């Protein structure tokens, strides 16, 4: 006799509304196919000829009718209900961690969410959607291991977690300069709130720092300990703000690119790809790493015993001109390359020294530049097509006449 326990748990895990909709779609598909089979089954030519080839044609006709009678979007819905989530590894209670990702609906944060979810952990994403998008994590919504919270880290957050990836902050120049005071608050008050949370629950915190801390000094190799930039961010004046007993990991992130980047965030990769796809001039010695390499580096750093800053980037350096020419070639664009004046205080050398990451984390980038660019170009091409096919043109609404009460004199 089959045990009812696993079956009952499975049924209770499935949303009832979705189950009803799924059954309704299956019924519509069955009726449409039966109708097509009946129509073709009474054809005189088929009754008079029992040839196997004709029977094969009937089966082909049935499949065509099913597809015509059952719209393609219904098949997509059916597929989305039957295979809703990416594959998730099972972890036991002692191995499964409760992980908080601030800014988890952003470019890097959403990819980090994917990795941690598929590794079997429980992930809570906190984002105020200033630059993050729900589209980046919508494929996890409803999963028992996933939670999405609309929250600004400037305000305190009370939650029980084991690890905190603090990625919340606008990263591209147009975004962080749009509201500089808000950016400062996110990076100061928001970080203090996350340190306080880590102290309260005993969680380890990983802070996503930036290569910009090295300043504009034209130093070719950026080393974590031999060069502090314009200010020692981990000196005695700042470490006093780290609560005692809190384990902190600091990742200094260099240029990263890939799918889910904002199309208009003003960064080199997104600008070049969009301009090349649209046939516009490419307006121009950094290094670039693909998002999956960075995500693997963040996870390795979080789970290590390294408490000092670690560079995470790609030491393979290309000039802006080489980068522009490569993107033109991959896109097949005829865009010309135009040279503009450089941005103020923009570091000219961004090549990281990743010797520490190699030695202590066993980490280094593995995705070739051309492979990563092809994936990014494919994503941006789909985004442009999506925008072109979903243009919303608001129609003028007739003026409303406000009806008031009749006044009595």
UniProtKB/TrEMBL annotation:
UniProtKB keywords: Decarboxylase, Glycoprotein, Golgi apparatus, Lyase, Membrane, NAD, Signal-anchor, Transmembrane, Transmembrane helix
List, in alphabetical order, the GO biological process terms annotated in this UniProt record: D-xylose metabolic process; UDP-D-xylose biosynthetic process
User: In the UniProt record, which is one GO cellular component term?
Assistant: Golgi cisterna membrane
Species of the source: Sphenodon punctatus
Which reaction is catalysed here?
UDP-alpha-D-glucuronate + H(+) = UDP-alpha-D-xylose + CO2
Domain named NAD(P)-binding: which ranges? 100-375
Please give the cofactor(s) recorded in the UniProt entry for this protein: NAD(+)
Pathway connected to this protein:
Nucleotide-sugar biosynthesis; UDP-alpha-D-xylose biosynthesis; UDP-alpha-D-xylose from UDP-alpha-D-glucuronate: step 1/1
In the UniProt record, does the keyword Cell inner membrane occur? no
Q: Where in the cell is it found?
A: Golgi apparatus, Golgi stack membrane
Q: How does it sit in the membrane?
A: Single-pass type II membrane protein
The UniProt similarity line reads: Belongs to the NAD(P)-dependent epimerase/dehydratase family. UDP-glucuronic acid decarboxylase subfamily.
**Chief subcellular location:** Golgi
Spell out the protein name for this chain: UDP-glucuronic acid decarboxylase 1
User: In this protein, which residues make up the domain named UDP-glucuronate decarboxylase N-terminal?
Assistant: 7-86
Presence of keyword rRNA-binding: no
Q: What class of enzyme is it?
A: lyase
EC number(s): the record gives: 4.1.1.35
GO molecular function annotation: NAD+ binding; protein homodimerization activity; UDP-glucuronate decarboxylase activity
């Amino acid at each position: 006799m089959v045990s009812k326990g696993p079956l009952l748990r499975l049924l209770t895990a499935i949303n009832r509304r979705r189950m009803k909709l799924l059954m309704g779609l299956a019924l519509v598909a069955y009726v449409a196919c039966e109708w097509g089979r009946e129509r073709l089954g009474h054809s005189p030519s088929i009754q008079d000829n029992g040839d196997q080839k004709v029977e094969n044609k009937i089966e082909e006709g049935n499949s065509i009718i099913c597809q015509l009678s059952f719209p393609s979007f219904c098949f997509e819905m059916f597929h989305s209900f039957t295979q809703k989530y990416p594959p998730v590894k099972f972890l036991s209670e002692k191995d499964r961690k409760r992980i908080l990702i601030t800014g988890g609906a952003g470019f890097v944060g959403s990819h980090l969410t994917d990795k941690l979810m598929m590794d079997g952990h429980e992930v809570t994403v906190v984002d105020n959607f200033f630059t993050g998008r729900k589209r980046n994590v919508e494929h996890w919504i409803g999963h028992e291991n996933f939670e999405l919270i609309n929250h600004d880290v400037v305000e305190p957050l009370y939650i029980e977690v084991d690890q905190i990836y603090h990625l919340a902050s606008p990263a591209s120049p147009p975004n962080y300069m749009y509201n500089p005071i808000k950016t400062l608050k996110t990076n100061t008050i928001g970080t203090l709130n996350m340190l306080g949370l880590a102290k309260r629950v005993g969680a380890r915190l990983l802070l996503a720092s930036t290569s910009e801390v090295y300043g504009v000094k034209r130093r070719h190799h950026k080393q974590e300990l031999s060069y502090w930039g314009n200010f020692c961010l981990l000196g005695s004046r700042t470490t006093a703000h780290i609560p005692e007993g809190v384990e902190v990991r600091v990742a200094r992130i260099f240029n990263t690119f890939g799918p889910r980047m904002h199309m208009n965030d003003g960064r080199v990769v997104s600008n070049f790809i969009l301009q090349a796809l649209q046939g516009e001039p490419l307006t121009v010695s950094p290094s670039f790493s693909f998002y999956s390499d960075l995500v693997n580096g963040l996870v390795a750093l979080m789970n290590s015993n390294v408490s000092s800053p670690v560079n995470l980037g790609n030491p393979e350096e290309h000039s802006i001109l080489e980068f522009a020419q490569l993107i033109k070639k991959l896109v097949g664009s005829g865009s010309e390359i135009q040279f503009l004046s450089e941005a103020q205080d923009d570091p000219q050398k961004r090549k990281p020294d990743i010797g520490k990451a190699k030695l202590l984390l066993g980490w280094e980038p593995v995705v070739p530049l051309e492979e990563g660019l092809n994936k990014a170009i494919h994503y941006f091409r789909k985004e442009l097509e999506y925008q072109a096919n979903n243009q919303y043109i608001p129609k003028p609404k007739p003026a409303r006449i406000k009806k008031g009460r009749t006044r009595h004199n």
